[in-house]
Amino acid sequence: MNSQNLLKISRQFGAPVYVYDAEKIASQYQRLTNAFQGVGSLRLNYAAKALSNISILRLMNQLGSGLDTVSIQEVKLGLMAGFKPESIIFTPNGVSLEEIEEASALGVQINIDNLSVLEQFGSKHPDVPVCIRINPHVMAGGNSKISVGHIDSKFGISIHQIPHLLRIVDLTKMNINGIHMHTGSDILDIDVFLYASEILFETAKNFKNLEFIDFGSGFKVPYKKGDIETNIEELGKKLTTRFNQFCEDYGKELTLAFEPGKFLVSEAGYFLAKVNVVKQTTSTVFASVDSGFNHLIRPMLYGSSHEISNISNPKGRERYYSVVGYICETDTFGSNRRINEISEGDILCFKNAGAYCFTMSSNYNSRFRPAEVLWHQGKAHLIRERETFDDILRNQVDVKNLFETPKAEVIK
């Protein structure tokens, strides 16, 4: 999207506002599909947690994607968006058996990541096909908070517990139709990913009725000019060759599955915020925007870098600014960034705001969450209205009568 269209959207819908480019989402989906075109059966399950607006889910369904979900609410959103139950996989962590049974009753693919629930579910529902999430004990991902396949991770069943796992499957006679792993996000070294894949292939040999192998995702996208990213094309060539060889040895063509989230929507997203104050201190020039980590928490939570540009003055001379928000504690989006000269009232654009931005937003400081807009076929479409004060009060129960001072009884 170009700056002029983004400025028009900020004027039409106000700022702050999230904007998503449908064409970019479609091109990322096609890029991933092309990288694995040598596989006989490929399934891309969009990770709903990245951006779960129902209009985005409908777009993914239209593109041919399946859906990766981690909560019963995401399952229900997916069904409302038109996904067929069999195209949805439910991969929760630490949820109750009741939630898993509720998802199973809706007909979606169940993916279990711990022995306790596996035994309970298998004992009660041995005929329901189940996928098993394996922890390959491989450290991968951009940082410790998004690395989920290492030995100390709470995710997945340890490869060292395979004998126990097999005993549960044998005793319950349950049907294991899939094997799954997810090593982490922002994967840079595809050799580490391929190494973890070998562990998954070796584990898969223990199960004779598999229909698919799910390799998770975590593919890194660039966050600034010259930034490194996962080489999807090279990974596609290497993993396709190895997967096809495994299927030949297995004696059956399986489906190769991924669950991309950030890869599909991150670069398609833009977050627009208005500059409230330009503040010069003894050592820093602050550009304070009409937003904060209640809308974009990733820089503070993960140390992630989002490119920031001044779309109101794209040809202005560059100066150094620290871009901060209005939250009442450390709330810095970027320190000493080189940005075209900023004036109060300008609109700043934060790139890579499609994944884990709105979905991790909050009403901290009793602030409203912004609107969401989808740019599709040259037009802007409102897909979520900006919150109002009524939304802040919704579901609150005002017990003001508890604190009223009783009136003194009048003696006549």
TrEMBL record:
The modification N6-(pyridoxal phosphate)lysine is found at residue 49. Residues 24-266 form the Orn/DAP/Arg decarboxylase 2 N-terminal domain. Residues 18-354 form the Orn/DAP/Arg decarboxylase 2 C-terminal domain. Pyridoxal 5'-phosphate binds at residues 218, 356. Its cofactor is pyridoxal 5'-phosphate. Its EC number is 4.1.1.20. InterPro entries: Ala_racemase/Decarboxylase_C, DAP_deCOOHase_LysA, De-COase2_C, De-COase2_N, De-COase2_pyr-phos_BS, Orn/DAP/Arg_de-COase, PLP-binding_barrel. It catalyses: meso-2,6-diaminopimelate + H(+) = L-lysine + CO2. Pathway: Amino-acid biosynthesis; L-lysine biosynthesis via DAP pathway; L-lysine from DL-2,6-diaminopimelate: step 1/1. One of its GO terms (molecular function) is diaminopimelate decarboxylase activity. Keywords: Amino-acid biosynthesis, Decarboxylase, Lyase, Lysine biosynthesis, Pyridoxal phosphate. Substrate binds at residues 298, 302, 329, 356. Belongs to the Orn/Lys/Arg decarboxylase class-II family. LysA subfamily. Homodimer. Specifically catalyzes the decarboxylation of meso-diaminopimelate (meso-DAP) to L-lysine. This is Diaminopimelate decarboxylase. It comes from Flagellimonas algicola.
